[in-house]
Amino acid sequence: MYCVRNITEDLYWVGGNDRRLALFENIHPIEKGVSYNSYLLLDKKTVLFDTVDWSICRQFLENIQAVLGDRPLDYMVINHMEPDHAACIEEIILRYPDVKIICTEKAFMFMNQFGFHIDGKVMKVKEGDTMSFGKHNVVFVSAPMVHWPEAMVTYDATDGVLFSADAFGSFRSLDGKLFNDEVNFDRDWIDEARRYYTNIVGKYGPHVQALLKKASTIDIKIICPLHGLVWRNNFGYLLGKYDKWSRYEPEEKGVMIVYGTMYGNTEAAANDLATRLAKKGMTNIVMYDVSKTHVSYLISETFKYSHVVLASVTYNLKIYPPMLNYIMDMKALNVQKRTFGLIENGSWAPQSDKLMRELLNEMKDITVLDNEISVNSSMKEQDVDSMESLADSIIESMK
Length: 399
Ligand code: FEO
Prior knowledge:
ODP_dom; Rossmann fold; binds MU-OXO-diiron; EC 1.-.-.-; Metallo-beta-lactamase, Chain A; 2 domains; seven-stranded mixed β-sheet; elongated
């Protein structure tokens, strides 16, 4: 059975949801599912904007068939070639053999790399090229590294619709609701939107800034991303979040404490710090066990808070492996502009403070507080002064 929704009078959402997939990109858990959005325009010409992941191809084809009826499909605009959107290109060609593909030169190269049979079907476009499908006039705008180098977005100037590719997307299935004003975004969606952005596109902040700059010059009435909700109002909220994330500015003054503990002693030290902070009035505190929290959640929260405390046991004379993985992911995603505090633990030859400090100091615009807290196996009275001092330093650095 087809399942589609109108966005405007002649534009339809023809995508679908995957609630079965455990790991997006085979890395990121998606307990709440994900949507793959595709859009179909019925103008003088018919135009499909991107395809979907292979997992929902059957639903997608039924949707297209239902909206097109007896009309042929004239064009397929491919804004992004990652297979979660491009997997069904050949299937569309098989069913609509006269379709022309509109894409960038790099997307064409990727189609060949992925082994697609597209000979004679591709119309290459570049930054600023325009095209009319009848009533609708579109302009193609390159958006390299948001999130792959071939990416572009397409702006329909007639209705003010921005087909934004991965930009402004989110994890989470749509569950019948398609528009941002059909959900309580700040309550139910923001965490999954942030986790999507930070882990998928987070590395490319300057490229997102470049796209936001271009977006500020056009009159946007609707944003149609490839995942998550379609936005038709409250753009200031969404663009504000993207602006913060892509500048690597924290959303909130607060402390995220991430601890790596084997037998609970490092966790106890982390609890002690959290309690001291709260007693001093800094109550915006979250705590995560690095071993049981998937790193994609840690990254998302790192983008949210201004301060991060890493409390790590020493393991094989190195940083505890799950903590090392988290730090390396922060580095890979270009986390910047944060203040870090450190707590190390070790029963003999504790090393994790020194090693974490070295890695953090390689990151851009990072402050690592001077306080050194070296717990020997378990926190004791003799550690109280230094823990108190770390709490004071954190609060002082927030002023
Ligand atoms: Fe949802 Fe970069 O693909």
